[in-house]
User: Fold these one by one.
Assistant:
Number 1:
Amino acid sequence: MKTLALKWILALALVLSFGLEAAAQQGEPPPARVVTVEIQKRLLVPQMQVPGTVVSKNDSRISAEITGRIMAIAEVGDTFIAGDVIARIDDRFYLAQVKRMEADLRQKNQNLSRIEELTSSQFSSVSNLELATADRDIAEATLDQAKYDLERTKIRAPFSGVVVERLSQAGEYATVGTVIVRLVDTHNIEISARVPISSAPYLEDLAEVFVSEGLDGLKLPVRAVVPVGDERSRMMEIRISLSEGNWVVGTAVKVDIPSGPALEVLAVPRDALILRSNNIYLFTVDADNIAKRISIRIGAASGDYVEVIGDVPEGVQVVVRGGERLREGQKVAALGDNL
């Protein structure tokens, strides 16, 4: 009887042990879904970020070309196309000048006609005819100058743009060179960035750069590298082309430029890096699909890839998506390129 009871107890214990093990297995979390890539050596060009600014190709302070009282002036925010009148100077004096020069030219033409008739009849010398002809020519030139001055009472936009600042006011007296308004072309724009002169050797064949504003970024073509540096700041300028868009003149951007020669290094996509306040690390995946956390340092960076320095062997799989949720030693399931 005691032997039978002992057998029942052992059987019950065995059943319970199998049940607990099964329950434990059923309670395990499923493998974490991640995307991995293979760490490989890549040729990277070290990059540095420099500040840049969206600028207008046409940003001018429009000045008066003649003297007079300002009768009218555009308002800030007014838009003009090339040739539109943006300010007017009192034209009464210049209009009177034109009328006087027209009358003088008529008199000179009449005098020339009379001299020509006298010369043809040999009642006047050829020298008198030459003098009358010169007087007529001078009167024509003087009239042309007077008409030109009259036209300059209308201050016109030299290019299409927006008035962003009034630097004179109606009623003020303008002289030659008095600044009237600041006109900015908001369509023909580009980026100006200043870079260290020491980077000049790596800019010679620079065709495009990565430009970022906030969280957004794109590659843009380099229009010009200005091969002249400032002797104080030791900086030089590059100009980057921009197509029309929602760019506002004055917008601050960041520009990635090469800062050294190309290097062959172990590199991973930026998405593989997990940044913390006091550490940078990534997760690798071994043959058993177990995640391993490795602290690293970063080196050269170019585009979407960055050099990794640390105990990371070449050819190992590194997590590029899903790493933020991983723990050391956790089981993972690589799903290719899509989670």
Note: The chain is about 25% helix and 40% strand.
Number 2:
Amino acid sequence: MSSVVLVCSRFGDQKARKRTITMTMSKLMSTQEVADYLNVDRKTVLRYLQSGRLQGSKLGREYRIPEDAVRQLVQPASSDRTGEATVIALANQKGGVAKSTSVFNLAAALHRLGHSVLMIDMDPQASLSITAGIDVGRLKTSIYNLLIETGLNPKDAILKTLAGPDIIPSTIDLSGAELELDRQFRPAEVLKAVIADIRPDYDFILIDCPPSLGNLTLNGLAAADEVIIPIQCEFLATRGLALLLKTVEKIKQRINRSIRVTWILPTMYHERTVHAREVLEELQANFPGQVFSPPIKHTVKVKESPAAGMSILDYDPEGDVALAYMALAKEVSGDA
């Protein structure tokens, strides 16, 4: 913050009287400074400026962005947080079910509701980190380091995102953690120990598990209070659901007695196809009360929003998908 002193003279009396007004102005930042501060690509900052999500003024070819606007963007509107965060793992051993997309958009929706949210990317593909605008090639500390190395402070790996939630990002290095975790004491409970000290700092922690049932997913489930299972509304996508539910039950019996599956989340739903409707009806019949409604529809804008560096709530705020994720956030948080 900087102070500007204005001296104003009033004339009309025998003596001129001066009054001093001190105005406090927010520091102005360039787009590159904002990108460096948030550890995102400069193009992501430009997209948020152009969409109106981030406030700034254009001077010539460059923007000038108030520091306060950057801080306001990455902080929740309010938080009545007490106690520890609710930890939610989004898991499915099948890939391509919009798992990372759901983590990102659910986190953004929870942030919109005024909750403090941390995302943890447990997938070596780093799709969640990239979607959140993180330049993974520049990272010095990621979830891999926290899982494998000792003596690290998890807060040092936490980054801000322009969508609002914080993130502990991933890199391709995490692919080696599957084997390295086997050499750890209680290999399925390493993540639980890592986040123990930061749980009081958030309302919600969302874990993006990889598309497998290896050590990384087991760590996510062992650390979680709740599980949301994104599932594509196709026959082949539903075949692995029983195996995942058995895995969750084993985790409940042996490691984490408090874990529970709260929602099965239908994604990429083609409402006009008979097959998608039949699969959804079958899910609702087999898992009454656990299949979230409305389903997440298949739209081009859901695919476009990560490329634009935005959540679907910013990219298409009035669309069905944005409204569905907001409805899910209200159910998850109890704000419905």
Note: The chain is about 40% helix and 20% strand.
Number 3:
Amino acid sequence: MFLLRKIPHKPQNSKSILTVAARFCTTQIPTVNSFPDEPTAAYYDLLVNAAGESRDFANLQYLLNKRVKDHCFNTSNTFKFITNTGASLSVLPDLSRTLARLDKGFTRKSAYDSLISRLCKLELVEQALRVVDLMARENFGLNACTFHPILNVLTKKGKMEEAWRVVELMRKSGAPPDLTSYNYLLMAYCFSGDLDPAAGVLCTMEEEGMKADTRTYDALVLGACKVGQAEGAMVLLRRMVDDGVPVLLSTHVYVIDSLLSRGFYAEAVKFVRGFSGKDTWLDKESFGSLAKRLIKLERLGEAKEVLDEMRERGLVIGDKLKDYYESKITNKK
């Protein structure tokens, strides 16, 4: 197999809190003494979004600078006031100018990166690329990480030509693709079972001196399973273990699903058992995932075997799984 050879809680009063924060932010710039002794990133996100909603850019600049000094770094909620509406998006030019005035270095770069991430979550790739262009022109710390949200959204939507154009843009912008960038491409190809271009990505990674990581193997195992090569997928998994690469639960689930879809129930049990014993959490989740799928397929004998083994190993069986099994047994009577 060619691929094998190429591997070298939400508070009830949240609305009232937001209202108070918005009123506060529009009347004054907070002073140091007005902040809690130990502010959190969530606290800053609340204030930043209130300032953004009210178009209070002076306060927004202050908050974005101060949060980094307080080690409350930007999150996926930092620019949540931006939505996919014309009225909301009209704020982008003023917001971009505000970010340009932030403290140099990490503070400014991380704010731009967070903005790009928000735009990509809204699937506004064109607007995200405009921010990239500004960062490149003004030398605002553009690097491969800046492009990750863009590649993520494009590859998930199967827009591979556009994704490769972004890769080329990365090179031209002095921010060459890294392992994570290539992993996005690899996962997209493997998800669709298109292994020829997947092999091409592996060749490029090898030429650029990159080594496969957890996500690389996860994609390759998925690809093998997509084309019915569960045996090859298990070879890859064994290689992961031998190389000391951490295994994701999803990687195990790909193989479990592949075997079960082909009616290889005993082999699926043997697979999970054979790769157990190194990580208690992974064992619990893998055995539990297998049991749940066997119950759904009404393979209750095999499911009982798996549940019994979980008890013998001291692995916790969740209440939902127990109830699911008992309901199926009851319905069978």
Note: DSSP finds 19 helices and no strands in the chain.
Number 4:
Amino acid sequence: MRSSLIQETCMPMTRRRAAALMGMAPLMAAPSLRAADVFPSKPITLVVGFGAGGGTDVQARALAKAASMALGQSIVIENRPGLSATLGASQVAQRAAPDGYSLCMTPATLFRLPHLQKVPFDPLKDFTYIANITAYTFGITVPQESPFKSVKDLVAFGRANPGKLSYGTTGKGGTSHLMMLRLEKMTGAQFNMVPFKSSTEIFSAVLGGHVDFSPEAAFGTHVNGGKLRSLGIFLADRVPSRPDTPTLREQGFDLVAKSSWGIGGPAGMDPKIIQVLQDAFQKASQDSDFKRMLMRDDQPALFMDSPTYTRYAHDLYAEEGKYVRELGVKVE
């Protein structure tokens, strides 16, 4: 009898407790749900691994302005150059919460540098890849008065006169340096590499006759101004802004520089937040002011959504490792 009474007394209590707990469940889950459902509710920081005022920084600011309009919240640019443009991204991956409020620019060096030297990040594990935006157009440019009219001319001279021609790059292991090493290996030509701190210094050196040519990006202003001539670009296709400039592939050299940049964040971001950011940056990539900047810098639009960009990042990491090993490049 007592046992039956206890059961009858406890059953309502159990049901009441269960009902109460069920009622509390949405409240317990509410913070995480609200974080994704109302994102963003405050300004977002985008860390750029290049110095303020440079070409990439200007592009990033134009993209951030357009994305801010799409999101309804401001995106604040924070410049953290260093470690071949990966310092800022590395710090975001290591220190920031994966809540979508700390983002970083993800340059191609993120996938090459680990093959060249010890780095404090793993590009395959430490990042969320939100969207790829564009790619740099690297090209071989010479002074207007240069006797070389094509990449074939340059290669022929470099083969017949090993080490007589010099070119400027932004450093050992950079995209332009690796492209030239691959060109040398492919053709037997030999050129002398001279490192500089920036593309601005490189083009000044070319115009001043201190080096013979440049394989760097951001050459558009000098070519448009009639001071330099472009012999060829390291892309799969010609760019709309320069329809008369052939690719190296068209000239018989199968070399394509995959040097894109995109937007990422720390690993472990909420898929709903990734979707919101991806959609905003896709819309921003179509902004007329941003597209004019890409056209000015001879850069193609190369938007990839998060799944596509993530696969691309893994493939590029493997590809960069292959080329670094084949060329035997190491950065001390």
Note: The radius of gyration is 26 Å.
